[in-house]
Write a structure and sequence with these properties.
InterPro entries: Glyco_transf_92. With 497 residues, this protein is of the alpha/beta class. It has helices at 2-58, 98-105, 222-234, 249-260, 281-291, 318-323, 353-359, 361-364, 428-433, 445-463, 470-478, 485-496; strands at residues 68-70, 90-92, 121-127, 130-135, 142-148, 154-162, 168-171, 179-183, 194-198, 206-215, 239-244, 264-268, 296-302, 306-310, 332-335, 337-342, 367-368, 379-382, 387-390, 395-398, 405-406, 412-419, 439-440.
C-alpha cells in the first residue's frame, strides 16, 4: 500500500512539473517578444532619422543668384502627399535679363493680334532660373503667374509679369510647382493649368531637332509627312515637334505611329477663340523656340514642304555642317530659298510601292527656280537659348551672338515645293515664277535612294495591313456570337440570287 501511494504521488509531481515548465517557457517567450519590439521600434526611429538626414543632404537648395531663396522661405507649406523632387525646391524673385527685355519691349510693336480675352496657355518649361509659359494669344498685357502643386492645388505665391515677347510669359520659379496658369488679374479664375516640363539637364539631350509648322488644309499629307521626317532623319535630326491643326484620320495613323516609336511629339494647336488655320504660325514658331531651349543645341523651324539641302561636298548632311561650327557668335543660320514647281496634290492613300515611289516629291518634282534674295522667305536653324524672340523667318532679337549668319547658296539652300494651287496667300505663284529660269535639279543620288527605301519601309509598316479571307474572319466573329460583315454580305447576295 505504501508503495502504491508513492507511485501515485510521483505521477502527480511529474504532471505538475510538466505544466510548470510550459508556463515558464511562455513567460520567457513573452519577454523576448516585448524586448524585440522595443529594439525594433528604436531601430526604426534611428533608421527614419538617418533617412531624413540623407534626404536633406541629397536634396540641395540651389542658390542661383541673390534673387533665389530656398523652399523653407516659401509662403507655401509643402503638402506631404506631393513627393519632394531635388530639381523642384527653388524659389526665385526676378527674371533674368529683365532690363534687356524692357528695352526691347519699347521697340517691339504692341498692336494686338486676334481677339483673345484670356491668355490661353499652351505649354510651360522650367529652366534653372525661370519658367517660360507659351500662349496662343498674342499681346503685351501684364499678367499673373499662378502656380499649382502635384495635386493641382494652387500655391498662394503668385508672380506679377508681362506678356513678352509675343505669346510668352516669363515667370519666377516656385518650390513644388508642377502646373501653371496665367491670369490677367490677381483675382481672376485661372484657366486649366498645364504641366511644367523640366528643361534642366546639364547638356541638351539632342543636338539637332526640327519643328514642323502647323499642319492644316485639305491636301492629303501622309506622304509629305513621311518624306519630311525621314529626310531630316537622314540629315541628322533626332527628334521632331509636329504642330497639328487638322489632318485626315488616315494621315493621323502615321503621325501616331511616329509618336509610338519616340520620333516625334505632337502639339495640338487649339484654343477657345476664333482664328483661321493659317493664323497659328506665329504662336507655333514661338512655342517651338522655347520648347527646344536646353532640349536641343540646334533647331530648324520649317514647313512641311521645305527641305534644307546641303550643297557642299565637304558637308553632305546638315549634322555634318553643324558639327563644323565652333564660333560661339553663330546662333542663327540663315538659308535662302529655291522654289520647286509642284503641280498636283499628293495621294490620299498608299496603293502600291510603284504608286508611292512615283508620287514621292523628290522623284516627281525637280523643276527648280533660281535662288531667292536674302529676305525672300528665308528659313533658319537656331541656337534656341541664345534667341530672345523669333519670327517666322528670322530672330527679332538675340541674347548673344549675331542676329543671323547668311549661308551661301553654294553651301546650303531651302528646297521649297510650292503647290501651284493658291489656297491661302494670293501672289505666291507669281512670286515663285518671278525667280526663273527654272532648271531640272534632282537631289543627290545617295539621298534619293536611301530616302526612297526608308519611305517605303515606314509606309508599308503602317498601312500595309495583312488581310484575311472572309471565312477566317467569320470564325473569329463567331467567337463573339456575331457574324462578320463580309459573311452577311455573302448571305445577302446569295438570297438575292
Amino acid at each position: 500500500m505504501g508503495r502504491g501511494v508513492f507511485i501515485e504521488f510521483w505521477q502527480h509531481q511529474k504532471i505538475y512539473h510538466f505544466f510548470f515548465g510550459i508556463l515558464v517557457l511562455l513567460l520567457i517567450f513573452t519577454c523576448l517578444v516585448s524586448l524585440s519590439k522595443v529594439s525594433y521600434s528604436n531601430e526604426e526611429n534611428v533608421l527614419a532619422e538617418d533617412t531624413n538626414e540623407k534626404i536633406l543632404n541629397y536634396i540641395p537648395i540651389v542658390n542661383i543668384s541673390s534673387s533665389v531663396s530656398s523652399s523653407s522661405n516659401s509662403q507655401y507649406s509643402i503638402q506631404p502627399d506631393c513627393p519632394v523632387e531635388s530639381w523642384n525646391t527653388i524659389r526665385t524673385n526676378s527674371i533674368p535679363n529683365s532690363e534687356l527685355h524692357k528695352k526691347l519691349a519699347s521697340n517691339f510693336s504692341k498692336s494686338e493680334y486676334l481677339y483673345h480675352t484670356t491668355p490661353s496657355v499652351l505649354a510651360a518649361f522650367v529652366y534653372k532660373d525661370q519658367i517660360t509659359v507659351t500662349l496662343t494669344s498674342e499681346n503685351h498685357k501684364t499678367v499673373y503667374c499662378r502656380y499649382f502643386d502635384c495635386q493641382r492645388r494652387e500655391i498662394p505665391d503668385q508672380f506679377y509679369s508681362v506678356i513678352f515677347p509675343q505669346s510668352t510669359v516669363l515667370c519666377a520659379r516656385r518650390p513644388e510647382a508642377k502646373y501653371i496658369s496665367i491670369t490677367r488679374n490677381f483675382t481672376d479664375t485661372p484657366e486649366y493649368p498645364v504641366p511644367i516640363i523640366p528643361r534642366l539637364e546639364k547638356e541638351p539631350p539632342h543636338y539637332f531637332t526640327v519643328c514642323m509648322a502647323t499642319l492644316y488644309g485639305d491636301e492629303p499629307k501622309f506622304l509629305q509627312i513621311v518624306d519630311f521626317i525621314e529626310y531630316y532623319k537622314l540629315q541628322g535630326a533626332t527628334f521632331f515637334h509636329i504642330y497639328l491643326r487638322n489632318v485626315t484620320d488616315y494621315d493621323r495613323v502615321l503621325l501616331d505611329d511616329y509618336v509610338r516609336t519616340g520620333d516625334i511629339e505632337i502639339i495640338k494647336m487649339h484654343d477657345h477663340h476664333w482664328r483661321d488655320d493659317f493664323m497659328w504660325h506665329n504662336a507655333q514658331i514661338n512655342d517651338c523656340h522655347h520648347r527646344n531651349k536646353y532640349f536641343s543645341k540646334w533647331t530648324a523651324l520649317i514647313d512641311i514642304d521645305e527641305r534644307i539641302e546641303m550643297k557642299n561636298e565637304n558637308h553632305k548632311t546638315i549634322l555634318s555642317y553643324l558639327s563644323s561650327i565652333h564660333n560661339s557668335s553663330i546662333v542663327n543660320l540663315h538659308f535662302q530659298v529655291q522654289w520647286v514647281i509642284k503641280q498636283n496634290n499628293t495621294p490620299a492613300r498608299y496603293e502600291s510601292d510603284e504608286q508611292l515611289t512615283r508620287e514621292m516629291l523628290f522623284h516627281k518634282y525637280q523643276n527648280v527656280s533660281q535662288v531667292g534674295g536674302i529676305w525672300d522667305q528665308p528659313k533658319c536653324i537656331i541656337r534656341p537659348e541664345k534667341i530672345v524672340a523669333m519670327t517666322i523667318h528670322i530672330p527679332r532679337a538675340v541674347y548673344s551672338g549675331d542676329r543671323f549668319t547668311l549661308i551661301k547658296p553654294s553651301v546650303g539652300v531651302v528646297r521649297h515645293y510650292r503647290n501651284v494651287e493658291q489656297r491661302v496667300f494670293a501672289g505666291a505663284l507669281k512670286r515663285m515664277m518671278s525667280h526663273g529660269p527654272f532648271t531640272i535639279q534632282p537631289i543627290p543620288k545617295w539621298l534619293r535612294e536611301e530616302l526612297t527605301e526608308r519611305i517605303l519601309k515606314r509606309i508599308k509598316s503602317v498601312y500595309n495591313v495583312v488581310d484575311e479571307p472572309c471565312r477566317k474572319k467569320q470564325r473569329i466573329y463567331r467567337m463573339h456570337h456575331i457574324d462578320a460583315p463580309c459573311w452577311l454580305e455573302k448571305r445577302k447576295s446569295k438570297m438575292l440570287d
